[in-house]
Design goal:
single chain, mainly alpha, Na+/H+ antiporter like fold, 2 domains, about 0% strand, globular, disordered N terminus, ion transport, transport
Length: about 500
């Protein structure tokens, strides 16, 4: 039921009824229409189960797909991510109109979260260049660890002193929202014209923070329940998860590249790879890893087939990064995931909304400080601006925020309320930051930035560079025996 809409209709109906009783004109037809509209809204909101009828859900799914496609096109034109629009749509479908009730959302959280996690992390690995990852891994790890620690400290202090929470509960909240969302970052960097090193750095950083948030949060769940926190347990669990993720990712990824060469012409080669990915997720969870690192490394192996083929000396699987099946599946998972985040929104006390917004602003300024002390001169001004703005929270935070309710922790409902506003405000801040980055001129290469040259001088310089590069290439090609002369003067 949506009490707000029904109350408005009741008010309109009551006021209109008074007018009818006072005036002499016949308005029974209009009054009947108002009653019918009220009953229709009541029917949508008061359906028997926690989920609306199938045809209504299919309508909502169609709107989600339409907004997902339109949002991607809108992002390519303006640089503004579609994440906020999809989250707001989820709020409209869920909390506003009540087509899907909170209990139905919470019941499917583990299943949808697992699917979204492995598909998005696998897609991220496919689109990472292993050479750039190796070149920027120290920047990624530094950004991830310092950024995660600073975010946890900010949220912990704010929750303890502003909300009066216990230290352990405050640290748990900080851990839930401590890292940037790989689900959002992977999609953003793919369509931003920053350097390849910056793309790899931001993508790998977000994957690391997702893993950190998941592992540390689950350790803290047990700590809050038991009232005791053990640092040694944290170190052992984190180390085991990293080892398991790397061993499974490399140990299965490399052999599967060889096996799949025998299945190169198979009709369902991609689906077989997807099946292996699901089995890897099961094994990772069985050995104490969330499956995120395993899926990332497995995708990294398959996505870098050309580079690895020179080392491993055999043909690699015919699973391209632009495989249409994989692209469509990733699009569906990402689009429905952000709507899913909106469905989980809970609007309660006003101080939780204020807390989420102010905490996100503090995280943004902390991120800017971390970026200044971490990034060297090898990164352009545009790379640094985009890095400082990349603070979106998403999949890990949204899923982890539901566990306090299922575990019966203190202040359980407050987690989901604050986390939703942190996610939404972080996405908005990231959107604004990327919009400002469009004003920064590109670095050395025209292909390295948002802005293309528009004046004649810039265009002239670009043409000169291209002409010089082309002439040098032709000269080197002829001297190296790659290109045969074609005109008469060259033959002579």
């Amino acid at each position: 039921m949506n009490p707000i809409i029904l109350s408005i209709l009741n008010l309109i109906r009551g006021q209109f009824g008074d007018v009818v009783s006072i005036s002499n004109f016949d308005s029974t037809v209009i009054l009947d229409k108002l009653i019918e509209l009220q009953n229709s809204v009541g029917t949508l909101s008061n359906h028997d189960g926690p989920i609306a009828p199938a045809h209504v859900i299919l309508l909502a799914a169609g709107v989600v797909i339409f907004l997902g496609v339109a949002g991607e096109a809108f992002f390519k034109k303006t640089g503004i991510p579609d994440v906020a629009f999809l989250m707001i749509l989820g709020v409209i479908i869920g909390p506003v109109f009540g087509l899907i009730q909170p209990e139905a959302v919470i019941s499917v959280v583990p299943y949808f979260a697992a699917l979204a996690l492995i598909i998005i992390m696998f897609d991220g690995g496919l689109n990472l260049d292993i050479k750039h990852v190796v070149k920027t891994v120290h920047f990624s790890i530094t950004l991830a660890i310092l950024g995660f620690i600073l975010s946890v400290v900010i949220i912990t202090l704010a929750a303890h002193f502003a909300l009066g929470w216990l230290w352990l509960e405050s640290i748990l909240l900080g851990s839930i929202v401590g890292g940037s969302s790989s689900a959002i970052v992977f999609g953003l960097v793919r369509n931003i014209k920053i350097s390849d090193d910056a793309k790899s750095m931001l993508s790998f950083e977000s994957a690391v923070t997702d893993i950190l948030a998941t592992i540390i949060a689950f350790i803290l769940f047990e700590a809050v329940l038991s009232g005791h926190f053990d640092l040694q347990t944290l170190e052992e669990t984190l180390g085991r998860a990293i080892v398991v993720g790397l061993v499974l990712g490399f140990g299965v990824g490399i052999p599967w590249m060889y096996v799949s060469t025998k299945l190169g012409n198979a009709q369902h080669a991609y689906m077989l790879t997807l099946g292996v990915l699901f089995v890897l997720f099961f094994l990772a969870n069985s050995f104490g890893e969330s499956g995120a690192l395993t899926a990332l490394v497995f995708g990294l192996m398959i996505g870098n087939k050309r580079h690895l083929s020179k080392i491993l000396k055999f043909k690699l699987p015919k699973i391209e990064m632009d495989d249409p099946t994989h692209n469509q599946l990733t699009f569906l998972v990402r689009s429905f995931f952000f709507v899913f985040v909106g469905l989980m929104a809970s609007f309660g006390q006003i101080e939780y909304m204020v807390f989420g917004i102010l905490a996100t602003i503090a995280i943004y300024f902390g991120r800017s400080f971390i970026g200044k002390i971490t990034l060297t001169k090898r990164f352009s001004k545009l790379d640094k601006a985009v890095t400082n703005s990349m603070i979106p929270r998403g999949l890990a935070a949204a899923v982890l925020a539901t566990y306090p309710i299922t575990l019966g922790l203190p202040n359980a409902e407050a987690y989901s309320q604050m986390v939703f506003f942190i996610i939404l405000s972080s996405v908005i801040i990231t959107t604004i930051g990327l919009g400002k980055s469009k004003k920064i001129p590109p670095p050395e290469s025209v292909e390295g930035g948002f802005v293309k040259p528009t004046d004649d001088s810039d265009e002239g310089s670009v043409k000169e560079v291209q002409t010089e590069t082309s002439n040098n290439f032709q000269k080197e090609s002829i001297e190296g025996g790659f290109v045969k002369p074609t005109d008469d003067s060259q033959r002579e």
